[in-house]
Design goal:
Blueprint (H helix, E strand, L loop, with lengths): L10 H51 L4 H27 L4 H21 L6 H28 L10 H27 L3
Length: about 190
């Protein structure tokens, strides 16, 4: 750090130094904000990886049953949103392989917990699986809302209809939540 000089002749040097220091501080803050945004987006991308893994599993479990089509439709929506998110991540940073691998592992633990609780209709595992999906999709909805509120007019988000993405997430939440409540009634009111 350069010392601030004293006296009238040094006033110009001090102003230049202060402007330079302020510019560096702004650049550092911009780099930090960009890194935080990249981390935030990669966290959500990893979450989408886990959601797709869980949905693929549920599609297999309910193959030939009415829930198969439901899970396929939700999977198509989540995949479309993941593609948008992936393009967004690529604008700011590289995809985090570590985060995606962590999400993949976390999904395997979630799947084991769900399997233990029972995956058939009328068993708690289905309720838990649907609850995990509601939570994940709610996180996605909040991502779109946060991006819209903070960067909605940024040229970095050009071509992205964040309001529509949030609306689509809300629609997905409502569909999955309706199935979750239906499954919960079957489990909790039997007997």
């Amino acid at each position: 750090m350069l010392p601030i000089r004293r006296g009238p002749a040094a006033a110009g040097v001090n102003r230049r130094y202060l402007k330079l220091a302020a510019r560096h501080r702004v650049n550092d803050e911009h780099r930090m904000a960009k890194a935080e945004l990249a981390t935030y987006l990669n966290d959500h991308l990893a979450g989408s990886v886990a959601a797709l893994e869980l949905l693929d599993h549920l599609i297999k479990v309910y193959e030939g049953k009415p829930l198969e089509k439901f899970f396929k439709d939700i999977r198509d929506d989540v995949k479309a949103d993941q593609d948008v998110l992936r393009k967004l991540v690529q604008r700011f940073a590289k995809e985090s392989v570590v985060r995606k691998a962590g999400a993949w592992i976390a999904e395997k633990f979630t799947r084991a917990k769900i399997k233990t609780a029972g995956e058939e209709v009328g068993e708690m595992g289905l309720v838990q699986a649907l609850e995990v999906l509601v939570l994940g999709i709610t996180g996605k909805q909040l991502l779109w809302r946060a991006l819209n509120a903070s960067l909605g007019s940024s040229p970095l988000l050009r071509g992205m209809d964040l309001s529509r993405l949030e609306e689509r997430a809300i629609e997905q939440i409502e569909r999955v939540e309706a199935k979750r409540l239906e499954a919960a009634r079957e489990v909790l009111l039997r007997g």
